[in-house]
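Lecture notes, continued. The same structure-token format from the folding unit now serves as the input rather than the output. Read the line below as a description of shape only.
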């Protein structure tokens, strides 16, 4: 019992070591807000689908620190983004810019939607035309009608 209590106390004493280290923030609240806003627009290069603001990866921490350094140096938001794009490429932006290289990325979903709609419309139109041109079924002969009636009465499949 005493060993278990000692183990629990030791475990509780070690818990602060598991706590995540807080990053230094900027003293100016407006500058810190800018840094956080910019960090939400930048992709974590390790996680790839998270912003550096949300990521706990060491590289994301370094990028957050770099954003704060650039803001402290007096860079505008656009200048900070340009600096990071020059250093890491367009991939660092969560929302890619609209330019010739990303044109298909921006208009591609709309083009696919239009192509899918046109295909559905064409298939529907062809199906309607085929149904209109189809010959109506010939009426049953007397023998066929009698056989159907017998099958319905007997309950055979």
């Amino acid at each position: 019992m005493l060993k278990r209590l000692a183990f629990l106390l030791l475990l509780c004493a070690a818990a602060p070591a598991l706590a995540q280290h807080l990053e230094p923030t900027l003293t100016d609240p407006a500058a810190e807000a800018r840094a956080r806003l910019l960090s939400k627009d930048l992709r974590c290069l390790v996680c790839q689908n998270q912003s550096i603001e949300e990521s706990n990866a060491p590289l994301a921490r370094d990028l957050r620190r770099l954003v704060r350094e650039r803001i402290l140096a007096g860079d505008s938001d656009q200048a900070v983004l340009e600096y990071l794009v020059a250093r890491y490429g367009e991939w660092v932006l969560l929302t890619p810019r609209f330019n010739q290289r990303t044109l298909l990325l921006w208009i591609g979903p709309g083009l696919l939607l239009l192509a899918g709609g046109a295909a559905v419309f064409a298939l529907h139109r062809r199906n309607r035309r085929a149904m209109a041109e189809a010959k109506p079924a010939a009426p049953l002969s007397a023998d066929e009608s009698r056989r159907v009636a017998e099958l319905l009465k007997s309950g055979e499949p």
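Point for the exam: The chain has a mean pLDDT of 85.
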